[in-house]
Amino acid sequence: MKPVEKKIINRNSFSKEDLYRILANKSQVGVYIMQDKRFKFVNPHILDYTGYSESDIKALDPSCIIYPPDRRMTRKYAVQMLKEQRFSPYEFRIITSDGRTKWIMETITSISFQGQRAILGNSLDITEQKEGRKRLEELEALESSILDAIPQAVVGLQNRYINFANNAVRDIFGWNREELIGKHVSIFYHTKEASRNIGDLFYSTLESQRTFITEFPCIRKDGKEILCRMKASRIGEKLRERRIVVTYEDITEKKKAEEELERSHEELRNLSAHLQSVREKESTRIARRIHDELGQSLTALKMDLSWLESRLPKKLEILKGKAKKMASLVDTTIESVHRISTELRPILLDDLGLLAAIEWQAEEFENRSGIPCDVTFKCNDISIDKEIATALFRIFQETLTNIARHAGADRISVTLRKTEKDLVMEVADNGQGITHEQIEDPRSFGIMGMRERASLLGGTVYLTGEHLKGTRVTVIIPVPEGEKDDSNSCRR
Ligand SMILES: Nc1ncnc2c1ncn2[C@@H]1O[C@H](COP(=O)(O)OP(=O)(O)OP(=O)(O)O)[C@@H](O)[C@H]1O
Ligand SMILES: [Mg+2]
Description:
Low-confidence stretches: 1-8, 484-492
Bound molecules: adenosine-5'-triphosphate, magnesium ion
CATH superfamily of the largest domain: Histidine kinase-like ATPase, C-terminal domain
Shape: rod-shaped
Strand content: 15-25%
Distance between the termini: 117 Å
């Protein structure tokens, strides 16, 4: 073939047959002539896509190359085309020489070749396009099933007009997806202005970042208002074509439930605060009455007994002895009354203030447990509000009880200081150290109570523990504005 081409090109004139041959051989389309169930001519393109040599393919029955399930259909279309009943190309699969399947698109015509009827075929290898299309269809199917599996409404926007929506738009907004295509996105909002505002926010934010999340009130087809959590992402690296995707999640019920939960927490907090203050008031009242009324009566009784004993004649030894015993019993009763009333509510706290009460409690603790308690104050007593004083005192009591019960410490240091905005109490022991699990254990009611007391006053309690080094409890309570402190420092 090559010498022929050369000859033709060199001479710059060629026969009709040579011209057809060149055209067929140079064609990017497969060209063949078939006669008596054999290929009489195949161009190089056919050899390329079938993988056969010219001699091999010419020796084959052409229908053997067709993928068996496609043979009947291919024959049918070929016959229709030859009878001029079909004009559009048909597609079928072939099996290449190395066993691969390829897609071919073909047209045929009836011709006369070397004086006999023959078929002239034009074919095109469309495997790549076919596979590309198939991959695309698969991707599209995957994309639409993913989008339909998403419970949120997913909406594609170009310059604020909807060009895509998944099926969930019906659940969220009550619109069918088909109804939305081509509509302005303001259909989801109360007013055009609201739509403009949220749109401006999205487009301006997505200039500099890929995604943006916000909550915004929307409106359903039936006019019902819903609160949506919206996530917008831009399509592509830049926002040049103003194409974005927005997902809408209806969080109306979730929000309501959250608010309900928050409200019931608030109610519980208020109830707890109320109960604590009632308990505190009750304790104070009982402590006062025990202290004042019982204390006074007992003191009077003791005085009467002393008077009686001094007036009893010497010879009534037994009676005198009895009166003495009664007086000493009254003494221990007075002590018990004092202790009980103090445990209920140290009158010191009301009468002398927090610092005195802490000092007294620390001393009591030291006497009872034998653990030295070092107390340092860096604040002025007068400035401490009564509620704060009560809370700090009760937290201090619980901390000391915990140290006695759990720490195994032999030293405690207590500091109370005033910072610019807060009153800070720190109690540190050198015991075994509280663990993180113990701090966070929902059954640690003592710790929970401390936290609750502090949080009712807007404060916090931090606990830290280090194994065998000790535990530190830090209580921070904000001090209401206007309360000035001269930061006196006093040490016990
Ligand atoms: N100073 C401390 N040193 C070591 N462990 C501590 C200390 N304080 C508390 N703990 C640990 O933290 C746990 C929880 O303390 P919390 O005060 O909440 O409960 P409790 O003292 O066991 O019981 P209660 O409800 O009577 O107070 C304790 O059981 C203890 O294991
Ligand atoms: Mg406790």
